[in-house]
Amino acid sequence: MSASGGTKAIVAALGANLAIAVSKFVAFAFSGSSSMLAEGVHSLADSGNQALLLVGGKKAQREATPQHPFGYGRERYIYAFLVSIVLFSVGGMFAIYEGYEKIKHPHELEHWYWPVGVLVFAIIAESFSFRTAIKESNELRGTLSWKEFVRRAKAPELPVVLLEDFGALVGLILALGGVGLALATGDGVWDGIGTLCIGILLVLIAIVLAAETKSLLLGEAAGLEEVEKIEAAIVDGDTVTRVIHMRTLHLGPEELLVAAKVAVQHDDTATEVAAAIDAAETRIRAAVPIARVIYLEPDIYSESEATKGADPEAAPGGPAPAAH
């Protein structure tokens, strides 16, 4: 996995969640707090999720094969989608069930200092993990807002870790609130309500992750900035005069497929056209290094055909209509 995959953030989150999970289960054993149990399962699920992301990153590095000629880059998307499923089922649904049971059958907390101490420790640990994820994300997101970064990021690991850490921090605050109200009122129902809120939060985060990862699995095009760089790199103004139409597709977070039909001069020889195509491919790779699979088809641009209407296959926001 490349540095842009957020390996440092994943490892930091994994270490924090394992330590926090152990402390939460210990606190549950001594206090009987359902919030602690739900949070312990949440941290355990998060640890498994980070392990899945690391496995996905490793598998994505495999070389292409005749059966998979474009490689295994999308393995990272598959494992990120599995993370959303785990977060929904193991984390969210378990917490909702546990919260419902605690509301129906509340009992007073015992040894309250255990859950309170563990929650304070967990908030500190998760804050460090969240800070690492934010720091790595800032190196990639540029001027994008956090919402835009999560929606547009092609590498799934950092958005996953960001949302998980954010959900963990909010969940810890909810758990602390539930435990605090249960202690203040002597009514264990508040502990159950806190647990229920944690479950709902995790389900919502899992749904967002699933929706964003599904889009990546289906295949997303390059961003507008990259498309503009590729189009500018293709045209040399001599042999290659314009882009007739173009398609781009992410084969993985750091691997882009580019397929385009380009206009060449009608009186150029085959040798000149071939040399121009090779030069265009070199310029594309220099402008957008992740463009690793490039197919350029030369054609003759016809103004009369272009005036008949836009290319029905042209992508929205793509180059001007053309024909041959």
Automatic annotation (TrEMBL):
Subcellular location per the Swiss-Prot or TrEMBL entry: Membrane
Domain of life: Bacteria
Keywords: Membrane, Transmembrane, Transmembrane helix, Transport
Signal peptide: none
Principal cellular location given in the protein's record: membrane
Annotated GO MF terms: monoatomic cation transmembrane transporter activity
TM ranges: 77-97, 112-134, 161-183, 189-211
Residue segments, region Disordered: 305-324
One Pfam family in the UniProt entry: Cation_efflux
GO cellular component terms given for this protein: membrane
A Gene Ontology biological process term: zinc ion transport
All residue ranges annotated as the Cation efflux protein transmembrane domain in the record: 11-218
Membrane topology: Multi-pass membrane protein
Sequence ranges of Low complexity compositional bias: 312-324
Gene3D superfamilies reported for this sequence: Cation efflux protein transmembrane domain
InterPro entries recorded: Cation_efflux, Cation_efflux_CTD_sf, Cation_efflux_TM, Cation_efflux_TMD_sf, SLC30A9
NCBIfam families to which the protein is assigned, alphabetical: CDF
Name of the protein in question: Cation diffusion facilitator family transporter
Organism for this UniProt entry: Streptomyces roseirectus
Lineage, top ranks: Bacteria, Bacillati, Actinomycetota, Actinomycetes, Kitasatosporales
